[in-house]
């Protein structure tokens, strides 16, 4: 009897400046990009808050990859629904390294304070759709 497991991640962040488009061996489009998430905390016995940024590698495939390639620029705020994938590979020196990446299932482009999105399109998954966000599946 197999048990059901869950590998799901929801993440909101800002796209960095590194993008890459490619093709798999089976000619499927791949688009990867990095997003930054920020956090702040107050260390114990401290008076000033500290801040930190974490970077996350996002991988998209097929139609989602093509849509992300057309719509993502540095600073774009995105919501990503996906799964974690752990990979082991060797670097240039032959040292084994581990990488964590997020394989995106869905991406939503969110409206930045600095950015105005005026374009919207029909989406059968949402009945109350507005121009504050663009949904990509």
Can you characterise this structure?
With 137 residues, the protein is mostly beta strands. It has a single domain (9-40, 49-136), classed as OB fold (Dihydrolipoamide Acetyltransferase, E2P) (Beta Barrel). The chain has one helix and six strands; from the N terminus they run βββαβββ. It has one helix at residues 62-71; strands at 9-23, 29-41, 50-61, 77-90, 96-110, 133-136. It has a five-stranded mixed beta barrel with strand order 1-2-3-5-4. A hairpin with a 5-residue loop joins strand 1 (9-23) and strand 2 (29-41). The protein is globular, with a radius of gyration of 18 Å. Mean pLDDT is 83; it is low at 115-137.
- How do the helices and strands follow one another from N- to C-terminus? EEEHEEE
**CATH topology heading:** OB fold (Dihydrolipoamide Acetyltransferase, E2P)
CATH classification, class level: Mainly Beta
Strand content: over 45%
CATH architecture call: Beta Barrel
**Major pleated sheet:** 5 strands, mixed, barrel
Say which CATH homologous superfamily is assigned. Nucleic acid-binding proteins
């Amino acid at each position: 009897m197999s048990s059901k497991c869950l590998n799901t991640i929801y993440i909101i962040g800002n796209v960095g400046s590194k993008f890459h488009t490619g093709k798999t061996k089976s000619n499927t489009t791949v688009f990867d990009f990095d997003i930054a998430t920020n956090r702040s905390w107050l260390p114990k016995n401290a008076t000033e808050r500290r801040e930190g940024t974490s970077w996350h590698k996002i991988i998209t495939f097929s139609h989602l990859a093509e849509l992300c390639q057309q719509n993502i620029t540095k600073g774009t705020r995105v919501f990503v629904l996906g799964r974690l994938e752990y990979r082991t590979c060797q670097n240039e020196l032959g040292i084994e390294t581990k990488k964590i990446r997020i394989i995106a299932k869905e991406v939503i482009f969110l409206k930045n304070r600095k950015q105005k999105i005026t374009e919207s399109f029909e989406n059968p998954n949402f009945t109350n759709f507005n121009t504050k966000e663009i949904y990509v599946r």
